[in-house]
Amino acid sequence: MTEYAWFAALCDDDYEFLGVPDPALQSSWDHCRSIVLRAEQNGFDNVLLPSGYALGIDATAFASAIAVETSRIKLLLAVRLGELVVPQLARQIATVQHMARGRLVINAISSDVPGETLSSEARYQRTTESIAVLRTLLQGKRADYDGQFITAHVDAPRIAVQHPHDPVVYFGGLSEAARQCAAESCDVFLMWPDTTERMSEVMREMNDRAATFGRTLRYGWRSHVIVRETEAEARAAASRLLSRLDVETGAAIRAKSLDSASAGVARQSELRDAADEDGYVERHLWAGVGRARSGAGIAIVGDPDQVAGKLRELRDAGIDTFILSGYPHLAECDLVARHVLPQLR
Fold first, then answer.
1. Are the CB atoms for 112 and 81 separated by under 8 Å?
2. Which tens digits make up the pLDDT trace of 46-64?
3. What is the DSSP letter of 169?
């Protein structure tokens, strides 16, 4: 079954005009709560709760509160592995999972802890070890593990013993170390936008890697969407989004991210540099968002048939999870739900 998810802007990244902060759209309990409740009301299957150290509000604290205000939508909690010792993290996740009645899924983030700089190989090795111990504890089992970064000889927390589960782990990364970590550890391999041909190549290579561990992977796409009744209106909305951005502000926003030097971010920059004068990589893939955002920097832009057609193209290529967003997030959530989701169900 294909999963369509929305994005809760927990990291101060909601705008009407990119690069122009609006106090009404700043990350807060009230604003982000409204996004999640609207996504559930609009029929989305899941919602990503992103995590940033310096920006926005804490994702785990937010997840625990929103879990009891929602009833159907899954909560994709971003967890920055390395910031907490794994047994403590297991207890937190098991508690929120209990509150959410099984609707919590995990987005494992492998960024540096603020104040440290590890090599890519070291960061992803720490992530692999963290996920291994986390899975064991959340299954309600004792962990006896001696790794390069993680040492754990501990029983599972009581809440995990009473409510054991095998967490579904979403994960993304394009470096060699990231791909190896994903093949060994994750369930859903998330990719930022690229050409369908390039993404198909990555999926074939990842299938081969996962097979060496006796595993299979699902695949996800994380992008923005700008949908309007006509293609001309959608392109005009994209241009308006950038109409107040200056080069220096955009560069400063991108540099704030802890993953600003990652292989995935580098690939988004390559696509942006290769785009046409209006910022389009393909007719309906617009790289303008990346001028003011690190990470996923491309939007699907078009009328309802064009946006739905692009998502079906990706679905046919092997993507079964779509994590979408748009600016402002509440308004675009309504537009996608009205114009696109009915065509995909």
1. no
2. 999 999 888 899 999 999 9
3. E
CB 76 within 8 A of CB 170: yes
DSSP letters for 6-18: EE--TTS---SST
Instruction: Please tell me the pTM assigned to this model.
Output: 0.93
310-314, long-range: CB < 8 A, 24+ apart: 310/284, 310/285, 311/340, 311/344, 312/344, 313/196, 314/196, 314/199, 314/221
Question: Distance between CA 290 and CA 236 in Å, rounded?
Answer: 17
Q: Across-strand partners of 323?
A: 5, 222
The domains of the chain are located at: 3-224+302-344
**Residue partners of 148: CB distance under 8 A and separation at least 6:** 125, 126, 129
**CATH homologous superfamily of 3-224+302-344:** Luciferase-like domain (3.20.20.30)
CA distance 110 to 52: 12
Q: How far apart are CA 287 and CA 19, in angstroms?
A: 15
Q: What are residue 101's phi and psi, to 5 degrees?
A: 55, 45
Residues in the chain: 345
Phi then psi dihedrals of residue 27, to 5 deg: -60, 125
Instruction: Quick: pLDDT tens for 11-37.
Output: 998 999 998 989 999 999 999 999 999
